[in-house]
Model the fold of this input.
Amino acid sequence: MQTTFPRLLLKHAAERPQAPALREKEYGIWQTWSWARAAEDVRLMSCGLAALGFQPGHNLAIIGDNRPHLYLAFLVAQSLRGVPVPMYQDAVASEMAFVLEDAEIQFAFAENQEQVDKLLELRESVPNLKHIIFDDPRGLRNYKHEGLISVERLFELGREYERVHPAFYQDSVEQGQPSDVSVILYTSGTTGRPKGVCQTHASFINSARGGVEVDGLNPDDNIISYLPPAWVGDHLFSIAQWLVAGFTINCPESAGTVTIDLREIGPSYYFAPPRVFESMLTSVSIRMEDAARPKRWLYQKFMALARRCGAEILDGHQVPLTDRLLYALGNVLVYGPLRNVLGLSRIRVAYTAGAAIGPDLFRFYRSIGINLKQLYGQTETCAYVCIQKNGRVKLNSVGEAAPGIEIKIADNGEVLVRGVSVLKEYYKRPDATAEVMDAQGYFHTGDAGVIDHDGHLHIIDRAKDVGKLSSGAIFAPNYIENKLKFFPQIKEAVCFGHGRDQVCAFINIDFEAVGNWAERQALPYGGYVDLAAKQQVLDMVTDCVQRVNADLAAEEGMSDTQIARFLILHKELDPDDDELTRTRKVRRGFIADKYAVLIDALYAGRGEQFIETQVKFEDGRTGTVSATLQIRDAKRYPAVAAAA
Done:
């Protein structure tokens, strides 16, 4: 059945008016919006926006953290046949200015004073921005800028407009078509300027229905919405699947309380990119290092058991009775308490997407009884291309083609996608649209992959990143980087090797995990730069690198890509310094250019290299950080012959 998001909202409000639609934690107390209240808020806000002059075809910028009114603002724009354009709340002014200009924004919905201040500052360079509506009034009482109003004032305008035009809202919603653009999501800009991806109501709704069907999602499910609303993954789960399945979304009090809120809510459905699961594992590792010796022994013994048979038990495979009984004991003593600490004790299904997840990290969560699965897709495909089905999860694949999706592999190894989730176009960029869409309607993903005999897709890496060593061996940097990031001491890694005779790597230590370790070793340090330069830290990271090399030596075709040399960077890679995208993907080409002197030093065989780097601070100021970096050689192992 073809429909639109505003119609789905009205359907839930009519059928389940008092059921919980959204919750927000404010001042430590959970506030609830029923479906009836959510529909009423959207109706009044829509009428208020119309009173300000918002018309069909206008774009509404939405900037802020996860808040009920912010999510409802998506539906407000769509109800008026306009288009919401979410923006990353931590974006710097230049990034915001580009999107505001490119999307021709006249109206913006901002969460709080921080976002209002950025928008007001940008008004000088973006004169079209005439109206700014803010949700949280704290700090804004004395702001008297023209066109700046509170959401409460928007409600008042809506009531006045509705009295004069009582049928306006319903008529407007009924005019909406499934083929209308429902959102413009800007890409992360890994390879240049971000592009506005135009997705329709039909594409996101059909994608959401596929996921709901595969996992049996229903109105009784709960999720916690804490990821950037500008990210396609959050849009799929917190907007599209929310309105299709009718479950409850819960907005945390702040980014700092997500862990506590996660434990309070106990969601049945959870979604996070790999970096969040990496962070969770790091926190577990830190806690266990600080635990008493008997507890550490118990944890190590039962985790060894879990690695051996936990994922198989989760998938319903045959496991020896002794292991099954021991695992049941481990569930009481270790796995259950661990899931509870992570806030995942009630999880029925969890997904990760947005980047490749290392098989070791993936196995860890499945081994302790968390039904973690991978979802594969891009902004241009509603984050919906492949989905892993229960009982058919492979640790090294991203699953089978999702319902309504066709996949094929091009002659050059690139993954091509056709189906319900594919973008309508890039906003005002017919040239860019033509580059990624072929005559048969296939979207060119830019990822290199293979499809196995079970129909599972295996992603090797970004097609542009896959290269060859001078020996001819295939070099897939992301695959090696994910192995490195499984270690809690390593937060980020960037590998180099295309056209070279060996692989070298940059590494970022995890400041919290390594700092905790240093304190227990009575090792003094004065910040990240000092800690990263400690010989003891270099020794610890060397051990991690060499363990990855041992793994690579045992994998067919990967032995030549063992890491020969590495260094620990003197600063953390940062989106504000353009080294990562806002979704924390490595901008590999930019890093290679910025740190060319370090790459040269790695391949020239030097033992150390001085570098001075410009950095941006949160308040907009710039500064420099410098250090003499030590370069280490890593032991490499002979290839292990595959078993006959």
Notes: The first strand starts at residue 20 and ends at 26. The mean pLDDT is 92. Residues 467-633 form a domain with the GMP Synthetase; Chain A, domain 3 fold (CATH 3.30.300.30). DSSP finds 21 helices and 28 strands in the chain.
